Amino acid sequence: MIGSGFGGLASAIRLQARGYQVTLLEALEQPGGRASVFRDQGFTYDAGPTILTAPFLLDELFALNQKKTSDYIRIVPCHPFYRIVWHDGYSFEYTGNQADMEAEVQRLAPDDLEGYRRFVGETHAIFQRAFIELADQPFTHFTDMLRVAPDLIRLRS
To answer: What global pTM score does this model have?
Structure first.
């Protein structure tokens, strides 16, 4: 397996769980790809994703080897996910809580609240179909994509 980012590690784990011998090749000094960290002048920085949006995917990988995620990783809730600060001192807190997000949008741009609600509704439908229902489905033939194309077109995704 070339690369030890999330995709490479997940693929290697899945192949090993099916009995294949896997060699993992990585150009960097440590595994993780974009999810790794680097240190400079006494500070530690993440090199990629700062939040875990689908912990159930980790649970699935650990379960392939009869393990529990919680025995190896402590997942810590982060609230807010992000705090965006502008040069004038104004800030916006991005969270995973719908009511908190609406309050932030209301505070930042009251006229955009209804647009934000429409955006959330539209993107939720796309997420539900494209990620929850289709992300783990094989698309090995062109006809596999054609089968779901009407839904994706309807969702404008």
So the answer is: 0.67
d(CA 68, CA 62): 6
Q: Which two tokens stand for residue 129?
A: 């179909």
Cβ-contact 46, 82 below 8 angstroms: no
Beta-bridged to residue 36, according to DSSP, are none
Sign of the CA dihedral running 69, 74, 78, 82? negative
DSSP letter for each residue of 47-95: SS--S-S-HHHHHHHHHTTT--GGGT------SSSEEEE-TTS-EEEE-
Angle at 19 between CA 13 and CA 24, to 5 degrees: 40
Within 8 A by CB and 6+ apart from 59, the residues are 68, 69
User: If you count them, how many residues does the chain have?
Assistant: 157
- Is residue 50 scored above 80 in pLDDT? no
1-76 CATH fold:
FAD/NAD(P)-binding domain (3.50.50)
pLDDT of 86-120, one tens digit each? 999 999 999 989 999 999 999 999 999 999 999 99
Omega before residue 77 within 30° of 0, cis: no
Domain range list for the chain: 1-76
Instruction: Specify the DSSP class assigned to residue 25.
Output: B
